[in-house]
Amino acid sequence: MPSRISAYQLKLQFDDPAPIVPGLGNLQQIADAIAAAHAPAIRLKPLKVSGHMRRTLGSFYPTLSEIRLNARLLHLGSDDEIRLVLLHEVAHAIAHHRSPKAPAHGLLFKDVCREIGAEPSKYVDVAQRKWGERTRYAARCRGCDREVMRRRRFASARCDCGVVIEPRRWQVVALKEGGERAVIGTSAPPVRRRSRWRWPGR
Ligand SMILES: [Zn+2]
Ligand SMILES: [Zn+2]
To answer: Considering every ligand atom, which ligand is closest to the CA of 121?
Structure first.
């Protein structure tokens, strides 16, 4: 859990175009209302959206007193799934506030979950598998300036104009229901493996 940001991370953050994140809707109000009712002295930072989380759906950072939510979850998850994840993280925040040394998913955490209406479990049931079908990777062609869109983050891709591009990073695009789309972050292509077959005679 990062308590401070290294120079390396800082550089990455400057390199990346800021992900376009959705409005958090009423999630901030929900978090604030629960915190006010169950832990009035808690001082939580405003919710943040992360375009870098892959498998993690949400995180509570105790040293920052901050909850971050996965941008993919916010664009591709159902309202119920988003709510479950938010409440899980708010429960972590309140449990940490009451007893900073208590185990993360221990008895105190489960009690807080029941108190605020969160699932008293370590994992939240979210159908993440389905999200893959509605995720695309986009990059701009340096030949014709059109957008090249793929289902996977290939190391290279041939545009319809014939130019082969090797994007340093792909934009991660969520295709929402109703045809709407949103850029939710960027992702580096896989590292290209060297061929196992070497040219003989070296
Ligand atoms: Zn947890
Ligand atoms: Zn092109």
So the answer is: 1
